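Quick one: co-fold with fe (iii) ion.
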Amino acid sequence: MSLPADYHMHTPLCRHATGEPSEYAARALALGLTEIGFSDHSPMPRDDFDNWRMRLDQLDDYVERVARARREHPALTIKLALEVDYLPGQEAWVRELAGRHPWDFLIGSVHYLADAWDIDNPAKLSRWRERDPFEVWTAYFERLTLAAGSGLFDIIGHVDLAKKFCFYPQEDCMPLFRRFLAVARKSGAAIELNTAGMRKDCKEIYPSRSILELAHELAVPITFGSDAHAPGEVGADFNKAVALARSVGYSHWLRFTQRRREPVKLLAG
Ligand code: ZN
Ligand code: FE
Ligand code: FE
Ligand code: ZN
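Sure, here it is.
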């Protein structure tokens, strides 16, 4: 039992992932993981909001597919969760979703800076080219700080997602990071080490070492996630992520069960 739980994985219901939850579970067992959690892209109040998430009428199907993976892999602990988009003004919707099923945790992610701009969408790269990176990072971290302070989420997803396509600001972003992490600390939100960044242009785990160092200094707890969109991505680069966490001083990760937290010792990967 050396690796922490992989708490960020998707299903085909979001329309851009492949493989059934059972296949992700089988891969996790093959890797020696003892715990995983599904956190697929949650529905929006309007199904035509975008094309990369499950529809609202598929939520029960999602829960059933995760339940099936549990039945087929009793040796593995499988948590039920969602990756929820944080959009200011949509707090009531998140509360409603939270009450629909016995979620183990909710990941709050900021993908949208405006209703029509999901900043990690490669189809919208031109929007990045029209804007000053610092202005975008500032707006992104302001939203992320609102998400952390909302108290709606157990974990904040891929904290520095804005680096995905390498539009790095010249300006010092540490004050943005510090404000976000101070609010996360105060509201009790954890952050995740998300290894999907290793598979993107930025070729780096989310968040960067400097953000993680500050998170540790402020005692913000952590979880781990591959953000797998295919069974082969489960647990990807977890040895690197564990080494990074330990190198900045982390000794525990958080386990979530029905939205209650429990620190678990972080062993060498
Ligand atoms: Zn996705
Ligand atoms: Fe995401
Ligand atoms: Fe994700
Ligand atoms: Zn994600």
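If it helps, The CA atoms of residues 209 and 244 lie 7 Å apart.
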